[in-house]
Specification:
CATH architecture of the largest domain: Sandwich
Number of helices: 6
CATH topology of the largest domain: Jelly Rolls
Number of domains: 2
Strand content: 25-35%
Strand order of the largest sheet: 4-1-6-7-10-13-14-17-18
Distance between the termini: 32 Å
Structural class: mainly beta
Largest sheet: 9 strands, antiparallel
CATH class of the largest domain: Mainly Beta
Shape: globular
Helix content: under 10%
Radius of gyration: 26 Å
């Protein structure tokens, strides 16, 4: 007996750490105003995107002229794109997100829970490391200029071998290896639109949240589209406003798309991200369908928490009830089974929500593959005999199955035709800036007195124009013997810039200070990018996770 206990203890230590930690999951498109498109590494083509489209590592988003897009990262950070912008998601790892702005401009609002070095944004010759509670914009301007403006908070900006901490009320222009720190320009219409959206989202946020800490940034979205009620079985649960309609049921207003290596539920409901990719659903007396959130520390994103059914001609699914096992290819928390190398006896699998009105949805096989939407009403399920299928369907997707919304995109709004770069090539060019545990000797630290002078705010021209100041060479600063991030002199230059397939032509002279799209990027010589390594001590404190609801009472397992 003692030998058995010892084996169990040793086995516990052999389990990887990620098996005990919650996995937050991918980013998502929160707003798609216009013909937003995205590209995945396996698709090889630009496809129309929709709200709640998941974005994984290696994906890219294109926002055509006249359109706007908002992307919500896993920690709640908001990234917005203006027309003529392309954003690449280079890395989406545990505690770190790496973005690359290939063209256009973006606006960023970091989440309150963001940690140091958890987000890195690269442009052509600029790296931005924003701090928590920071609002900034990054503009790729004509003549290869890049402008980083800090509206709130602070960020470290590195380019041309120089590294500067830019604070609220300042912006820095980087051009040809030089940079200049100036005061902010007057806001334009793009900035006004973003600040108005920030203000609206902040007003709807409450100080208290009924969600676990890992999902707290989604509280305002659920509060605006439903109500929270306390029930004896599960504690606080969320009841969507649409439950008032007699014909509503979860996992109906939307469709399944093929993303990565699995079928992912894409909800057509604006709030349909958290309730369909986390937690479980239950029908409660007096309330109807309610969403039961996961417990703290057991927050795992999944393609869709449903049980599957299958026949030769139909595919069906039902929302999982609290405590029911999710069968997937991977680890999804304590109430899950990794079926990659496991055989499941389906005769013992029972889904409680199947026999509830609207609890099971069935589609013909071809409709499922071609992207037909699920029926939204409680029409009787087809009179077919279905059997439980462990895991999502293992059927070959079609082109329509990969499209969040099946429609034709006009060629005029398609991205510029450039040579596609693999995500590995981009990550080689734009390497992560990693922190050092100890400072090194011989680095330079610029004192506050040696910072560039702040210029007076100049009046912006009429219209949506940005005042762009010519960047002046910076004077060398003396060494003060204090800690300063180290320049990697052996860093390889950035290579493999996108090359236009069309013949190169001399473009008209751009109007200085006006953001313009780049329909035909010109291949140019890339300069060596010097990379700093930043010192960032970690917080040794850790939170203790207890299985209690938000009111402090112990509740049933979910």
């Amino acid at each position: 007996m003692k030998k058995l206990i010892l084996i169990c203890v040793l086995t516990t230590f052999l389990i990887p750490a990620w098996a005990f930690a919650g996995v937050i999951g991918p980013a998502r498109i929160k707003l798609a105003d216009g013909d937003i498109m995205f590209r995945t590494p396996d698709a090889g083509e630009w496809l129309p995107a929709a709200v709640n489209t998941p974005l994984d590592e290696g994906d890219a988003v294109w926002c055509p002229n006249g359109a706007k897009a908002e992307i919500q990262l896993a920690d709640g950070t908001m990234v917005r794109l203006d027309g003529g912008s392309q954003l690449d998601l280079l890395a989406n790892e545990d505690g770190f997100t790496h973005l690359h702005l290939a063209s256009g401009r973006l606006y960023l609002r970091t989440a309150q829970t963001s940690t140091k070095n958890s987000l890195q944004i690269d442009a052509d010759d600029t790296t931005v490391l924003p701090e928590a509670r920071t609002r900034l914009r990054l503009d790729m301007l004509p003549n290869s200029q890049e402008d980083v403006a800090i509206l709130k908070g602070a960020a470290y900006v590195e380019g041309g071998g120089n590294r500067t901490r830019v604070r609220a009320g300042e912006h820095i222009i980087l051009e040809d290896g030089h940079n200049e720190l100036l005061s902010l320009n007057p806001p334009d219409s793009w900035e006004h639109w973003n600040t108005d959206r920030d203000r609206a989202q902040s007003r709807s946020a409450r100080a208290e949240s009924n969600l676990p800490d890992e999902l707290r940034s989604h509280s305002s979205e659920l509060d605006a589209n439903g109500t929270w009620v306390r029930v004896p079985e599960y504690g606080m649960v969320w009841r969507p406003n649409v439950v008032a309609y007699d014909d509503w049921a979860p996992y109906r207003s939307g469709r399944w798309i093929w993303k990565g290596s699995d079928y992912v539920w894409l909800s057509f409901e604006s709030w349909g991200w958290v309730p369909y990719h986390f937690g479980r659903w239950a029908v409660l007396a007096g309330f109807g369908w309610c969403w039961v959130p996961p417990l703290r520390g057991d927050v795992y994103w999944s393609p869709g928490y449903v049980g599957w059914y299958r026949t030769g001609s139909h595919i069906g699914w039902t929302p999982l009830a609290p405590g029911e096992i999710f069968y997937g290819h991977g680890h999804y928390g304590r109430h899950s089974v990794n079926i990659t190398n496991t055989t499941i006896n389906t005769s013992t699998v029972i889904y409680r929500n199947r026999d509830i009105r609207g609890g099971m949805t069935v589609l013909p096989h071809n409709d499922f593959l071609r992207g037909r939407t699920a029926p939204q009403r409680h029409s009787a399920s087809p009179n077919v005999s279905v059997s439980i299928s462990v895991g999502s369907p293992r059927i070959q997707p079609q082109r329509e199955t990969r499209m969040p919304i099946v429609k034709q995109i006009p060629p005029k709004v398609a991205p510029p035709r450039v040579e596609h770069q693999d995500n590995r090539e981009l990550r080689q060019r734009f390497q992560r800036i990693t922190p050092q545990s100890e400072p090194q000797r011989g680095y330079q630290q610029l004192p506050a007195s040696s910072a560039p002078p702040i210029s007076a705010v100049q009046t912006a021209p009429a219209g949506d124009k940005r005042v762009v100041h010519p960047a002046a060479p910076q004077q060398a600063s003396p060494s003060y013997g204090t800690s300063q991030p180290r320049i990697e002199q052996h860093q390889q230059p950035r290579t493999g810039a996108p090359a236009a397939t069309a013949p190169q032509a001399t473009p008209p002279a751009p109007q200085r200070g006006v953001l313009q799209s780049r329909p035909e990027p010109i291949k140019r010589e890339l300069k060596q990018k010097r990379v700093w390594k930043v010192t960032s001590p970690e917080d040794p404190k850790e939170k203790v996770i207890k299985e209690k609801d938000h009111g402090g009472k112990e509740i049933k397992g979910r």
